[in-house]
Amino acid sequence: MRLGGAAVRRIWTVELHPRAGVPSLVCTQCTARTPACGGVSARSAALAHLACHAQADALPGHLRTCQCQAQGCRWHPRHRGCAGPVRLALTQGRGGRAWRLADTCTACAAATSHTAVVPDTQLGSPRSPAPSAARGPRRPGAEERLRVGEMLTYLAAALPQFTSAAARLLAVQCALRTDACGRARLPAGLLRSMRLSGRREIWEELAHGAWLQYPDLRSTPVEVRLLDATALDQAPGRPARCRAADWALRPVPLFLPATSPPALRLIALVLAAYYTSDRVARRLDMEVLTRLSGHSRQQTAELLDRLVAVRALAAWRQDRDTDEVLWELLAPQHMDET
Ligand SMILES: [Zn+2]
Ligand SMILES: [Zn+2]
Ligand SMILES: [Zn+2]
Questions:
Q1: Domain residue ranges of the chain, discontinuous segments joined by +
Q2: Is the per-residue pLDDT at 180 higher than 50?
Q3: Quick check: 247 and 145 in contact, CB under 8 A?
Q4: CA of 284 to the centre of ligand 2 (A)
């Protein structure tokens, strides 16, 4: 599929069309029609179809390029360059009436609203080599961080906007621990350690958004079934994702006690997931930070102040020109890597 050395276009879209009262997803590539209702089921149906195209047009990882950049980065505000591995990203457009699947780098995917990185599914293209294989010795925590960052990006698009911080923290655990059929078992100890035991209202929140089926909370472990096909059939395998889920419980270098309020734990998790020791290190778009933690800008600023007050951060400030949050750790030197 390479044309005269030009990069291959890897963008596929479906549009929601009403048809005799039953809305259907119409593919702009093959004109297939798939019946669809709204919300999660439209997302699942769109992804299922678009993933078939991605699979049919499979391309080795090293030939995949950021399609957002190829379009002049018009899908998101501001552009500071592509970064991170290229993955399939699913974007909801026109208020849920169009869906786009495209090869997108981590930086562009994070900057684009209503976009979820589709965890390299088996439905999708051939897997790119694991970061450890590509970059030499494994840096402890680096893959877990990447995985959790992708999951937070996915959840920001998949969950209703006003989903609480506690529900988002729980969703991270469910989505990372799920098997290929969308089932996850959460031991009682895990929920206790997160201070989420018996919190029915949090499960109700996630079930209300049709993201999971309301589980029987009397059973131990609690058995969860996810309803969003985007979260199913993920690569890497479950052991690697469970390691990421464990990391998310103690996200170095911003680990807060489990007794801290969920909103504070969530924003610390987002910062830790985007933490690197290189020069882009402690900078994150305010827009990305607010979207991934599900807060307003003002709430985000207050939570960052609280992170300073509890000495998780030494300081933070907002760069008004670039609209970035710049933050400093108290003692980065002794903190774990990357
Ligand atoms: Zn099609
Ligand atoms: Zn871009
Ligand atoms: Zn890019």
A1: 11-127, 143-227+237-334
A2: yes
A3: yes
A4: 15
pLDDT band per the 50, 70, 90 thresholds, residue 335: very low
pTM of the full predicted structure? 0.70
Q: How far apart are CA 308 and CA 318, in angstroms?
A: 14
Q: Are 213 and 207 in contact (CB under 8 A)?
A: yes
Query: Across-strand partners of 100?
Result: 13, 91
Ligand located closest to 45 CA: 1
Q: Locate 37 and state its tokens.
A: 């209702």
Q: Where are the beta strands (DSSP E) in the chain?
A: 11-19, 22-27, 33-35, 86-93, 98-105, 115-117, 183-186, 212-213, 222-226, 283-285, 315-319, 324-328
Q: Which two tokens stand for residue 92?
A: 């909801």
Residues with CB under 5 A from ligand 1 (ion): 27, 29-30, 32
Residue 49 CA, ligand 1 centroid: distance in Å: 6
Q: Is the pLDDT of residue 231 over 70?
A: no
Q: CA-to-CA distance for 83 and 85, rounded, in angstroms?
A: 7
